[in-house]
Amino acid sequence: MDVAGLGVTRALALLVPAIVVIGLFLVFPALWTLYIGTTNYELAGPNSVSPQNVGLGNVRNALHDSDFRNALLLTVLYVAGSAVIGQNLLGFLLAWALPRASKVIRGGAQGLVLLAWILPSTVVAFLWFALLDQNSGTLNALLGNHSTAWLIRYPMIALIVFNVWRGSAFSMMLYSSALTTVPPAQLEMARLCGSRGLRLLKDVVFPHIRGHVLTNTLLITLWTANDFTPYLLTGGGPDHASEVLPVFIYDQALVGDQLGYAAAISVLLLVVNLAIAVLYLRLLRRRA
């Protein structure tokens, strides 16, 4: 065997472990989900032993299921409110304002924002449950009001605010890096010409960072659409009022025993994620 052939063989040998891992933990679960999504597979009973193929029956059932449509609507609201608008806006404002703040304020704010992001989901969910609890919650104690059940009366608002607080650190870091690409000379010239506030951002800053804006929006949209943390705060309640799609899938699979139906909805969620990714990538390519 010549040197080139030996090099190719060694390269393939190095790739084999990665290919095996990807196959076992990514490709196989995806194919298995596609398969059971076409069956009436259940956790218990006759259909758990010998499931029947139903083709696209699960998809048709989902499209006619009012609970699924409710979960889809809540997911769109959750993603738009907490990621596309909330995390984007707060992350940019922090990245824009903190460099102009004093060193103490900048360090403290960045530390608090990063701490909210790096803490485990179970920990931050417990902290917010303790904050919003009706009987012993910190917020009610501060307001002198011991009767407001925030997670029951305003579940989606609570989830949106929670996710904005928890996830803005990534947007802040990405925009902090992006803003370094804006030439200081252009900023100074625009200020000398009278540009301030939104006009300065629109005319000078955003043309340099629009690619970063699209990249950030794509990532936080996908992360939020697949976020299971809302279950830790509200469990999807009350009465499905905060049951976003990941929670709905969990309830259908492990509470309702409908694994086939839940798998089909998972595939639908995957298709939506892919469509969003393609849309953002096309916008990014067009802006490049």
TrEMBL record:
Compartments, as annotated in UniProt: Cell membrane
Keyword Mitochondrion (UniProt): no
Keyword Transport in record: yes
Parts of the chain that traverse the membrane: 12-35, 71-99, 111-131, 151-169, 204-225, 259-281
Annotated keywords: Cell membrane, Membrane, Transmembrane, Transmembrane helix, Transport
Any one GO biological process: transmembrane transport
Topological category with respect to the lipid bilayer: Multi-pass membrane protein
Predominant subcellular localization, coarse grouping: membrane
Assigned GO CC terms: plasma membrane
ABC transmembrane type-1 domain ranges (all copies): 73-280
Similarity field: Belongs to the binding-protein-dependent transport system permease family.
Protein's name according to its UniProt entry: ABC transporter permease
